[in-house]
Amino acid sequence: MAPLLEIRDLHVQIKGKPILNGVSLIIEKGQIHAVMGPNGSGKSTLSYVIMGSPKYEVTKGSIWYQGEDITHMPPFERARKGIFLGFQYPHALPGVSVANFVRTAMKSVLGEEKGIKEFRKTLREKMALLEMDEKFATRYVNDGFSGGEKKRLEILQMACLTPKLAVLDETDSGLDIDALRVVANGINKSATAENAVLLVTHYQRILDYVKPNFVHVFIDGHIVQSGGPELAHELEKKGYEWLTEALKETV
To answer: Residue 220, SS3?
Structure first.
């Protein structure tokens, strides 16, 4: 059986500037993968390319999802096939309520519109999961939201859309300890044996709550080392420079 996601020797550029330089990665159902690395290493680019952002150009390699080559598939088709991207900096949509936004997203991605009573029941259940007040549903999307509220909304969308592959780009960015705990709890409760999570993060702290099966370190646009959760703890203690220096010594 084909992996849920397989990235094969992926090279990506933007405006002629190389960003990813030969990334290969396999993710199976039931797994949580963490991608770590210093700023500018390409880890966030990977998340956008998996989702199909037209901003980036794939110059070599391919992306396979459930045995299908999706390298040049548009983002909306990837979403309908079960891929979700949680943004590091979600946009505000003044005038659009959270409830209407989530209901529209569910209809577009899942291909069917739930009755209003059924939708409200689902939304209340998922909001309770993220310790959200029900009044949150009437607010405009990310309009005046705190950093923690924006990230909770990203995880709320994920919980409602039930993707097979959730790609979360620095979901822990800007969160205080309480918001981090709630968001991590939402990720954990949404992770099952039938889906997978790719968690892009700069820091180890969220991995104290969301336990990854694998940790991958990005430097200069490619994965330089992979391991288990212990690798994240080593990075927390030593930083990324020790790994960069170690790589130089092997060249």
So the answer is: coil
Q: Report pLDDT for 250.
A: 54
Q: What is the mean pLDDT of the chain?
A: 92
pTM, entire model: 0.93
**What kind of architecture, by CATH, is found in domain 5-250?**
3-Layer(aba) Sandwich (3.40)
Phi and psi at residue 234, to the nearest 5°:
-65, -40
**Quick check: 186 pLDDT over 60?**
yes
CA-CA distance, 185 to 173, in Å (whole number)? 16
Q: pLDDT at position 13, please?
A: 97
> Domain coordinates of the chain in residue numbers?
5-250
Whether residue 67 contacts residue 2, with contact meaning beta carbons closer than 8 Å, is answered with yes
Strands 196-200 and 32-36: parallel
Sequence-separated (6 or more) residues with CB below 8 Å from residue 112: none
For the four alpha carbons of 165, 224, 70 and 153, in that order, the dihedral sign comes to: positive
CB under 8 Å to 76, separation ≥6 — which residues? 108
CA atoms of 247 and 99, how far apart (whole Å): 49
Between CA 81 and CA 74 the distance in angstroms is 11
* Residues whose CB falls within 8 Å of the CB of residue 250, separated by 6 or more in sequence, listed in order: none
Q: Is the model's pLDDT at 1 over the cut of 60?
A: yes
Q: How far apart are the first and last CA of the chain?
A: 37
Tell how many helices (H) and how many strands (E) occur in the chain: 8, 12
Paired tokens of 117: 């009573």
